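In response to a reviewer's request, we include the raw inputs and outputs for one of the modeled complexes. The two entities were modeled together in a single run.
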Amino acid sequence: MKNTEAVKNEINRSEQHATRDAYGAALLALGKKRNDIVVLDADLSGSTKTASFAKAFPERFFNMGVSEQDLIGTAGGLSLTGKIPFASTFAIFETGRAWEQIRQTLCYSHLNVKLVATHSGITVAEDGASHQAIEDIALMRVLPNMTVIVPADSIETTKAIEAVTDFNGPVYVRLGRAKVPAVMPDAYKFEIGKAYTFHLGKDANIIATGIMVSPSLKAMEILKKQGIDAGVINVSTIKPLDTETILKAAKRSKLIVTVEEHSIIGGLGGAVCEFLSENHQIPVKRMGIRDTFGCSGSSDELMKLYGLTADDIVKTVKQGLE
Amino acid sequence: MKTSNTKDIEFLKKQANSVRIEILKMLAEAGSGHTGGSLSAADIATALYFYKMRHNPKDPLWKERDRFVLSKGHAAPLLYTVLALSGYFDPSLLKTLRKIGSPLQGHPCSKMLPGIEISTGSLGQGLSIANGIALGLKMDKLDSRVYCLLGDGETQEGQVWEAAMSASHYNLDNMCAIIDNNGLQIDGHCCDVMTIEPIIEKWQAFGWNVIDIDGHNMQAIVNALDAAETIKDKPTMIVARTVKGKGVSIFEGKAKYHGLAPTSDELAKALEELGQKESA
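The model returned the following structure tokens for the whole complex.
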């Protein structure tokens, strides 16, 4: 109950920020504290927000040009000399173009490299399908040794960047381009591998990640007014999955709905279904992009087109409970 | 800088012969693995591990060591042999190549064996990693050098040229790459599969200092490694002209021995040849 009170305050916050902006600010702050942090980019430092670090610490910033494979390898090499490299570019190019470099070089040798990608999901918007990474969670999740984190807002991004700096091993952090509302409480303690339960619902539980946490909380409020007790859990670490929290939600309700700005194949929905199918039988509805490419349009238009608004979540929960 | 004298060269030649013998024995025992490309680079790796590189088998992670990245990871038997003969691990382990439970994986795994800087095997990735190490060493103001061995067929990978660009862009004069230019890849001659010529001019155009040598002339290898150290503000590429399967007549110049291990008969013949050379 206490959590629900906190949520109310948070989702009424008027200011919105892009998670990539929080990343840029976090890098700059951490760069001042630690001189073992180095940053690499592939000609997108203005967009990924690593440019402010580059300006402050030019001797610790390496622009690799338009070459993602070399970006990953060079970051790997730097980590072998004890540096903590943050390598950034757009999500599709980082996880797609350089997937095998990430597998062979970073994951197989368990290198301490942080991949922080921006411009994930369909909210890249007008740039269209070629730039909309809707497979990146799946691509990273399948790799042994890889940790996958999808922050819900700027507050969580800041805390996640701090946490991954202290964590030893390859990490993928998925950030977005669009401005999103703050949803996490200020006092929230981010821990890799721990989900955050806003409210545990008796009827249904919505398991959301990234920017989909915000509309899920709105859906929860709408459902509450209609007499349906739906909970919301923010699974910001997709791997390792917080199976304890998910099992608890599944055992205490009649329906699980997963929501992600990603393909329904291989992402959060896939991870939750893989776990639940072996551990607890319960109906699961997966919300996300349904095995199709995106297209150009504004973020709002695209979220409507692909059925990812708060109203769509309400509809899915109600249909699932029927 | 060390200076090489005739005595060093004779020692290194004998050592390279021993390396070849160990490679063939371990490959025959394993029954699979890459013979041709391990033998072609044997003289180069011998010069690196027994002449040029600063390294300490008793302290594999010694901060001031020179680093070696085997980008052509299929030459794992060669790397395992020079590491074992250097004292990184008991040479009896060489018999376990490619066997279940062995740290001597089919391609090098850094988490399983001391002395291996980074896991390799998927071609085209090593030079980028070596560049990253070179950058890190420069940041730490260490004068350690980075050596990266590439196959010639491997340079067909686009990432190699991304790395070629960044090494010269960042003036990595602590980087010395070597191409084991044996002219053959799995499907045949490089010039038939996908030509990489003109190899000298390509690397020069990418801003590298290029040294062209006979990769089986130990004095030439030693001289080139010494010369590379004197170059400032740019990386050095040693293009080592080699013969695939070098040292054993039945394997020399044959593409099929890229990924084939010697049979017991072939091993007997090979050891006889190498033994004769050793005593000659």
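As requested, we also summarize the result in words. Chain B has a mean pLDDT of 95. Chain B touches chain A at residues 67, 109-111, 117-122, 124-137, 139-140, 158-159, 162-163, 165-166, 169-170 (CB under 8 Å).
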